[in-house]
Design goal:
The complex is a heterodimer.
Chain A lengths: L1 E11 L4 H11 L4 E8 L5 E11 H13 L3 E7 L4 E12 L5 H10 L3 E5 L3 E8 L1 H11 L4 E6 L3 E4 L6
Chain B lengths: L8 E3 H11 L4 E4 L6 H7 L7 E4 L3 H15 L3 E5 L3 H5 L1 H9 L4 E7 L15 H5 L5 E4 L6 H13 L6 E6 H5 L1 E3 L19 H13 L3 E5 L1 H5 L3 H11 L3 E3 L14 E4 L6 H9 L2 E5 L5 H4 L10 E6 L13 E4 L2 H12 L3 H6 L1 H17 L12 H12 L4 E4 L3 H9 L8 E2 L10 H11 L5 E6 L10 H6 L5 E6 L4 H10 L15 H7 L3 E5 L2 H13 L4 E6 L9 E2 L8 E2 L2
Parallel strand pairs in B: 2-3, 2-4, 4-5, 5-7, 6-7, 9-10, 9-12, 10-11, 12-13, 13-14, 15-16, 15-17, 17-18, 18-20, 19-20
Antiparallel strand pairs in B: 1-8, 21-22
Classes of the chains: A alpha+beta, B alpha/beta.
């Protein structure tokens, strides 16, 4: 069954780890949709968040093989229900006297910020779920998007609520 | 020279050799070159402690280290130079990787300041070998050298074993640092599971006692984990029939009444029928390779599966497993035996069903035993049977790849572990001879044979010089059909006999070839000459090539067409 998966992979922060991890995906013809890597609070550790889509059984196999890598400390699949997933987007959008106030209003609705201003463009920064970011893009698109940059997803497991 | 802390200061080269000695290494298979000249210079001082075997091609070094490791259970060690030296080992490394063989490969690298510069004899060895090693390292700081070697040996030989490569830039081998060999390794991401989970184990026991048609399907993991004795005890305790993969041969005595031969594409009729009719199959250190399962949906179609393996990623990969047991085969079997020791009543009350099942398998065995027809040309199967007879089954046998390999698996009766060396996973032609050299060095008192094809033997024939130089009495028995026989067989069966480039139109005169190298060459062209040639070869304490001119178009049967269920066997 094809579906989107988010893997949270704790690795030792060593040269070549990213290649080893990415190599496991490419060797099985799996496309990585996004990848975010950054250090953690521990020295010598990094966390990778990889989103990918594909057959659940093959992904299970990849997860096992990730665990087999010497530099991989822990692999966890995060689901939408039990984790918080965020992406950040930077959108440079056309802005003229008639649209500037619209842009400001829209970014407020989406809890975003304007981080750069020029005579004919505003750059909006927003963070949220993939869905939220997609709707922001949809709304700004008619105004004319000049450039867009997006991070991959980062995700964290929710704290367990007392039942 | 000693600094204040009492640790000796030495060059990187010396640190390498001292570390190898700490690991108990006494043999290295290698070939020198610019990037490892410092190490070779130091090696000259270690002549009494470490035997260096100078191969004739780096591929030979990797296969020889692999054969050494498989025959002895120890880690095999390879030392080669950067660039072409390293790339020449790739086939050998990939072969060891596929068959989970512990070897450590030390490759020279250009000096650190030149890495990435397309320097002379530079190759991205770590990049090239990443997918075919269990792990690999580039040592960028001499401080890391000893620890890296320690880790490499540990990783290579524990868990599911495999090749580990260490790439060492030349400047590291000449700079100096204190030698401090770590006592233990600390690898957060590497903790193999050795003991089976109790809950899973009790499920296996329960299922075993419920089963009316149980079967053990064993693989190379039994041999790697030295679990033959435990396996035999388990099989005998419950009268369990045993079938083996190519890699598992020798893990259970072939002449045992509970053994029904190899399964899969060229498996026995009885083994393949047993798999398809069993109601409970325990896969032990096996990995459901496509050459074993045939059409995977039909494999063990009437059975529940338990799978014992140290590598979780092997379990449930191709076939649905009801009871996965992650752990070392030996310790898992020991736990099972212990749990079963309290069940003698259940064991005897359920024995009748199992004996009936055994009877059924035996009928299959007698209906279609492995066989071939004799006439006035030499049959390759006959040569192998004779080798078995004359060595009393006590030899170490390596093979090349192709028909020679399958006939050996079928007709030589392997009765003890680590006596059969063959490239199962990668199927590497050219493996057998250098592997036999490695095995002969590991086991100087054993008779070592390479059962070869006329095609394969030419892939690493240069190692004959190595065998002669080190006076290794390896016996090469070429079953010479003047064909890439296995290719010809597929072309006969599936391509309307269109023998497209599978005939060896020109082969060397193998007898003269042997003589040119300073070895002995013998030839048999008629069945009645086979025994004489073998006896003569066994009496010569030198490398011998035997050229057995065999029936050119003999095929390996049974055969399951690729993708067909394994019950769909073409029989003799
Ligand atoms: C390095 C390599 N190249 C190609 C093959 C494909 N292949 C498998 S068996 C075979 C024929 C082997 O011929 P020979 O050594 O004469 O053995 P025979 O089958 O005749 O016993 C070939 C070419 C292989 N296994 N390995
Ligand atoms: Mg041949």
């Amino acid at each position: 069954m094809e579906k989107t998966h988010i893997l949270s992979i704790l690795v030792e922060n060593e040269a070549g780890v990213l290649t080893r991890v990415a190599g496991l995906f490419s060797a099985r013809g799996f496309n990585i949709d996004s990848i975010c890597v950054a250090k953690t609070l521990e020295k010598n550790e990094s966390k990778m968040i990889i989103t990918t889509s594909g057959d659940t059984q093959i992904l299970e196999q990849i997860t096992k093989q990730l665990n087999r890598l010497i530099n991989v400390i822990k692999v966890q699949e995060l689901t939408d229900e039990d984790s918080v997933v965020r992406q950040t987007v930077l959108i440079k959008v056309n802005a003229d006297e008639t649209t500037k106030s619209d842009i400001v209003r829209i970014k407020d609705i989406f809890g975003g910020r304007i981080i750069d201003i020029s005579r004919n463009s505003y750059t909006v920064e927003a963070t949220g779920s993939e869905k939220k970011i997609e709707s922001l893009i949809d709304i700004l698109r008619p105004l004319g998007i000049k450039d867009i940059v997006m991070t991959g997803a980062i995700a964290i497991q929710r704290a367990r609520r007392p039942s | 020279m000693k600094p204040g802390n009492g640790k000796e200061i030495m060059t990187g080269s010396k640190i390498i050799l001292e570390s190898l000695i700490k690991e108990g290494v006494d043999t290295i298979f290698g070939y020198p070159g610019g990037a490892v000249l410092n190490i070779y210079d130091e090696l000259f001082n270690y002549k009494d402690k470490i035997k260096h075997v100078l191969v004739r091609h780096e591929q030979g070094a990797a296969h020889a280290a692999d054969g050494y490791a498989r025959a002895s259970g120890k880690v095999g060690v390879v030392l080669v130079t950067s660039g072409p030296g390293a790339t020449n080992t790739i086939t050998g490394i990939a072969t060891a990787y596929m068959d989970s063989v512990p070897i450590v490969i030390l490759t020279g690298q250009v000096p650190t300041n030149l890495i990435g510069n397309d320097a002379f004899q530079e190759a991205d060895t770590v990049g090239i070998t990443r997918p075919c090693t269990k792990h690999n390292y580039l040592v960028k700081d001499i401080k890391d050298l000893a620890r890296t070697i320690k880790e490499a040996f540990y990783i290579a030989s524990t868990g599911r074993p495999g090749p580990v490569l260490i790439d060492i830039p030349k400047d590291i081998t000449s700079s100096v640092y204190e030698f401090d060999y770590p006592e233990a390794v600390e690898l957060r991401g590497y903790n193999p599971t050795y003991f089976g989970h109790h809950v899973q184990l009790s499920k296996v026991v329960k299922e075993l006692l419920n089963a009316k048609r149980p079967l053990l399907y064993i693989g190379g993991g039994v041999i790697i984990s030295n679990a033959s004795a435990e396996l035999k005890e388990l099989a005998e305790l419950l009268d369990l029939p045993v079938t083996s993969t190519l890699m598992g041969l020798g893990g259970f005595p072939s002449e045992h009444s509970l053994f029904f031969g190899m399964l899969g594409m060229h498996g026995t009729y009885a083994a393949n029928m047993a798999i398809s009719n069993a109601d409970f199959i325990i896969a032990i250190g096996a990995r459901f390779d496509d050459r074993v399962t045939g059409k995977v949906e039909e494999f063990g179609r009437n059975a529940k599966f338990a799978h014992i393996d140290i590598d979780p990623s092997s379990i449930g990969k191709n076939v649905k497993i009801e009871i996965p047991v992650v752990g070392d085969v030996k310790s898992v079997l020991n736990s099972l035996l212990e749990m079963l020791s309290a069940k003698s009543k259940e064991i005897s009350s359920t024995q009748y069903d199992r004996l009936k099942w055994l009877e059924e398998i035996n009928i299959w065995k007698y209906e279609h035993p492995l066989s071939y027809k004799m006439n006035d040309v030499i049959k390759p199967q006959y040569v192998i049977e004779k080798i078995y007879e004359l060595t009393g089954g006590s030899a170490i046998i390596s093979t090349e790849v192709g028909q020679n390999q399958m006939w050996t698996a079928q007709f030589y009766k392997f009765n003890s572990p680590r006596t059969f060396l063959t490239s199962g996973g990668l199927g590497t032609m050219g493996y057998g001879f250098p592997a036999a050299i490695g095995a002969q060095i590991a086991c100087p008192d054993k008779v070592v044979f390479d059962i070869a094809g006329d095609g394969s033997i030419q892939m690493n024939i240069q190692e004959l010089a190595t065998a002669v130089q080190y006076n290794l009495p390896v016996k090469i028995a070429i079953v010479n059909n003047n064909f890439l026989g296995m290719i010809r067989q597929w072309q006969e069966l599936f391509y309307k006999k269109r023998y497209s480039f599978s005939e060896m139109n020109v082969n060397p005169d193998f007898v003269k070839l042997a003589e040119a190298y300073g070895a002995v060459g013998l030839r048999a062209t008629r069945p009645d000459e086979v025994e004489g040639v073998l006896k003569k070869a066994l009496s010569i304490k030198k490398p011998v090539i035997m050229d057995f001119v065999v029936a050119p178009e003999e095929s390996v049967y049974p055969m399951v067409a690729p993708g067909a269920p394994i019950t769909g066997m073409l029989l003799v």
